[in-house]
Amino acid sequence: MIFTLDGKYTGEILMTIAIIIVAYFIKKVLLKVLHQRITDSTSFYRVRRIINYVVFAISALLIGGIWLKFGQSFSTYFGLISAGLAVALKDLVVNMAAWIFIMTKRPFTVGDRIEIAGVKGDVIDQRLFQFSVMEIGNWIQEDQSTGRIIHMPNYKVFTDHLANYTIGFEYIWNEISILLTFESDWKTAKRTFLDVAEKHTLHLSQEIEKKIRVASKKYMILYKNLTPIVYTDVKESGVQLTIRYLCAPQQRRSTKEAIWEDILNIINESKTISLAYPTMRMTLDSKKNGSIHEME
Questions:
Q1: Are 168 and 252 in contact (CB under 8 A)?
Q2: What pLDDT does 76 receive?
Q3: Nearest CA to 97 among 164, 151, 158?
Q4: Measured at the alpha carbon of residue 201, what is the angle toward residues 200 and 207, in degrees to the nearest 5?
Q5: Where located (predicted)?
Q6: Are strands 238-247 and 162-164 parallel, antiparallel or unpaired?
Q7: CATH topology of domain 172-269
Q8: Residue 199 to residue 177: CA distance in whole angstroms
Q9: What angle do CA 181, 183, 184 make, to 5 degrees?
Q10: First CA to last CA across the chain, in angstroms?
Q11: Beta strand pairing status for 172-180 and 291-295?
Q12: For 207-230, how does the pLDDT look when each residue is reduced to its tens digit (9 = 90+)?
């Protein structure tokens, strides 16, 4: 079959092609001009995304107007098309509705660290039907990047719990537990470990207080103590001291490493503080010819 332009819809076809071509060149020209003017890559990414959406929406409206004529049959055609789309493209429609929710309510945005549907990562892209995250954790410890990009359908914001590490309050609580022997001077160790935690995190206190005041206008965030604290507990093998402190999500591993290195140096130099570890004690019973009498 040879396609000709002598049919009933020749004008509509030509106008549709013309709109697509014009929209394509307008988008290219705008992006080229803005690329020269915007030096920040993050800002250019957001502007490019907005331009893509706007050009697509305007083109779709113009093409729809051409084919539907906006005449008396518009409501009939629109009803039939809507019903068909709702059935055949259910997932796409839900993803688009979720995209509108994401764009308006802003549960997360590009650059935020989130956890959803069992996946943790930094949001690196948002699109009409899906968003992408740079995965963290999984087989990698301390919430560092795995190098994998995970693409998630937008509707996940409706069906799964969403945790945002960044929005509102930009810091998280982290804990480090140190198990000392019962013979250790745990009181001195507790004071020393607190000094170490403050050394690495105390400079954040004023900044965090400002951010909490801002966040409390939108969320019920009521932290009374923002400075590091050390808790004491007793375990089977010794006295456990737990350092609790605030840090940025992306700095969880680096701050933990710095604190641990200082703690290890303190323990190595101290004669009264020792790390506890699993041990076994055996007692020889002389009455039973040197046989083992007790084991723990």
A1: no
A2: 58
A3: 158
A4: 140
A5: Cell membrane
A6: unpaired
A7: Alpha-Beta Plaits (3.30.70)
A8: 17
A9: 70
A10: 90
A11: unpaired
A12: 777 777 676 666 766 677 788 999
Q: What is the pLDDT of residue 231?
A: 96
Q: Kindly list the distances between the CA atom of residue 262 and the CA atoms of 52, 148, 194, 240, in Å, as whole numbers in the listed order.
A: 51, 33, 11, 17
Which sign does the torsion angle of CA 108, 111, 115, 117 carry? Answer: positive
Token pair for 190: 């507790």
Architecture of the CATH domain 113-164: Roll (2.30)
Q: Which residues pair with 39 in a beta bridge?
A: none
Q: How far apart are CA 104 and CA 140, in angstroms?
A: 34
The domains of the chain are located at 10-88, 113-164, 172-269
Mean pLDDT (10-residue bins), the chain, 296 residues? 54 84 89 82 78 83 72 56 62 85 91 92 90 90 87 93 84 92 94 93 70 69 80 93 91 92 94 84 60 48
Assign 3-state DSSP to the chain and report helix, strand, coil percentages, each to 5: 50, 25, 30
Return the pLDDT at 186.
Answer: 95
Query: If you write DSSP's letter for every residue of 108-121 in order, what string do you get?
Result: --TT-EEEETTEEE
Report which secondary-structure segment, H or E, holds 206. Answer: helix 205-215
Pairing of strands 172-180, 229-235: unpaired
- What span, in angstroms and rounded, lies between the C-alpha atoms of 284 and 267? 33
The answer to whether 91 touches 153, Cβ cutoff 8 Å, is yes
Per residue, what are the HEC states of 249-260?
A: HHHHHHHHHHHH
d(C-alpha 238, C-alpha 192), whole Å:
18
From the list 230, 267, 238, the residue with the least C-alpha distance to 179 is 238
3-class secondary-structure state, position 72: coil
